[in-house]
Amino acid sequence: MTPDDRRAQLLALGVETLAERSIDDLTIDAMAERAEVSRALLFHYFGSKEGLHHAVVLAARDGMLHATEPREDLAPLDRLEDTLDRMVGFVRSHRGTFHALVRGASSGDASVRELIDEARDVNAARIVAVFVELGEPDDGALRLVLRAWVAFAEELLVDGALGTAIPAEELVAMLVRSARAVVAAR
Amino acid sequence: MTPDDRRAQLLALGVETLAERSIDDLTIDAMAERAEVSRALLFHYFGSKEGLHHAVVLAARDGMLHATEPREDLAPLDRLEDTLDRMVGFVRSHRGTFHALVRGASSGDASVRELIDEARDVNAARIVAVFVELGEPDDGALRLVLRAWVAFAEELLVDGALGTAIPAEELVAMLVRSARAVVAAR
Fold first, then answer.
1. Summary mean pLDDT of chain B
2. Which DSSP helix (H) or strand (E) runs through A45?
3. Which of A8, B60, B66, B162 is deepest in the core (most CB within 10 A)?
4. How large is the ipTM?
5. Considering only residues 120 to 179 of chain B, which have any Cβ-Cβ distance to chain A shorter than 8 Å?
6. pLDDT at B105 (0 to 100)
């Protein structure tokens, strides 16, 4: 294995850990034990506990953004529905990861919180693009309301996709309707 | 001054500090210097840095909930508008405090995050009560969508009430419309 492969393997294990437990439990010691590697190797790759957290949250976040990459060949509303459908799928198959990403705000580490804020920015830009293509003016009010809708969607996904047995298509339809509703009500 | 008065005074100073800087900066040392008291006295009142954080966030949170206590004598939609009007006022006059409360999730401390979650529960129960009185069935879908709307409102208040010069009445009207819209779209 190359050092890069090794690092990627450790990151994948970190993301897996994040899916099951709080980020506070993601320590160098716990990782060393779980990965059956030396603490020195982990310090070599990540520098510190903070470095490990940053790298793991970055990997989890980019996994989520990649898994929900909008299909630009679809018409705006179809694209929104398709993206949200994959988001519900991601949330349900990576339960703890999504929770950690949304509540990753719950990290005391400012650089980790920044990663989460960037993901929110990407998701807000994606939904803004849908409504601009649908003919809405690309202004402050649209951005304000859709950035807030991203927080709405995150909460609905944490509560609705993780806590309940609501069918995916109902959640997706509810999210699409709510986005259109808050845009119309802005 | 009685010990209780003394403690309340220290808490008020802590809330003031929270309005200006990150919770990470709210240390026993910084508080001792600012309050011109001994570190020993702060340890006596709060036990630890975590104890100080918990007590300060609790005081800030209860200040916010008290300042936005719904007026039960008003009809549901008037009450919602009145509550939100006071919320926008609170956010604007206690800028950093509200930000700290919403992003207080950003505390690495689980007991602090719990205080914030409880505030969200209170705000969700308040908005659910409005719509139940308006005749909506008090079921899982209503609660799901309105709890998510609380996250929407928090984000809109952080972005819209702090970052921009949107008049309070416009923000309030936008929040009322968005709540009705997501309820109708659920």
1. 90
2. helix A39-46
3. B60
4. 0.88
5. 140, 144-145, 147-156, 159-160, 164, 174, 177-178
6. 47
